[in-house]
């Protein structure tokens, strides 16, 4: 239970974190639980008229799943998602299953949290520093963000980048192309990294990223 002490002399830290962060995490947990309960209630309502031969409902609640820690923008929160027992079958005789769209099985972190990681990486945060930085931002229990997982994600980004660079442009037409340099404050000895970006305009007016390459400076030579 969250406890707020209205005393100016009270400690402004709760378990090593600020009271404001604790309130934000508790609020996020309650909103997520409410959203999950609403999602299940809507699913049960949609199938409440489906019955077996004895008149028993085919879709009913089935308690709650085991508590799991989920990392969201406000930190890492414990959540016990409601479960559904769906006894209906499809045309092939396979059991139908309820799957939450809000928090699918095995989800351990919000997609938005994963989107932050490449930004931190581009800003110059080394792989070894991720754990300490994310613990300060999201809590010590930040799910799925160990040094090993950060290294795996980094390899995935590099693989995606190589595939992007090798893709065919045979079916693309561009009526105009921009080439420019973007500077990042990444630690590279005494120089700042300059990334060369090429953007093309399609005949229908839409912009499309053509390529991104490492450079040294914003120049015609690069």
Could you provide a short overview of the structure?
The chain has 222 residues and is α+β, with helices and mostly antiparallel strands.
Report on this model:
This protein is of the alpha+beta class. The chain has 3 domains: 13-108, no CATH class; 113-165; 168-215, no CATH class. Helix content is 32%, strand content 26%. The chain has 4 helices and 9 strands; from the N terminus they run ββαββββαααβββ. It has helices spanning 19-46, 111-122, 127-138, 147-166, and strands spanning 13-14, 17-18, 59-64, 68-72, 75-79, 82-86, 176-188, 191-201, 207-215. It has a 3-stranded antiparallel β-sheet with strand order 7-8-9, with no helix packed on it. Strands 1-2 form a two-stranded antiparallel ribbon. The longest helix is centred in the N-terminal third of the chain and has 28 residues, at 19-46. It is extended, with a radius of gyration of 25 Å. The termini are far apart. Residues 12-16 have low confidence and may be disordered.
Total number of β-strand segments? 9
Kindly, what is the distance between the CA atoms of the first and last residues, rounded to a whole number of angstroms? 59 Å
Q: How many discrete structural domains?
A: 3
Approximately what portion of the residues adopt beta-strand conformation? 25-35%
Individual helix count: 4
Strands of the widest sheet, in order across it, are 7-8-9
The general outline is extended
Which blocks of ≥5 consecutive residues have pLDDT under 50?
12-16
The helix fraction, in percent, is 25-40%
Radius of gyration using CA atoms only: 25 Å
Protein structure class: alpha+beta
- Report the mean per-residue pLDDT as an integer: 77
Biggest β-sheet strands, sense, barrel: 3 strands, antiparallel
What is the H/E order?
A: EEHEEEEHHHEEE
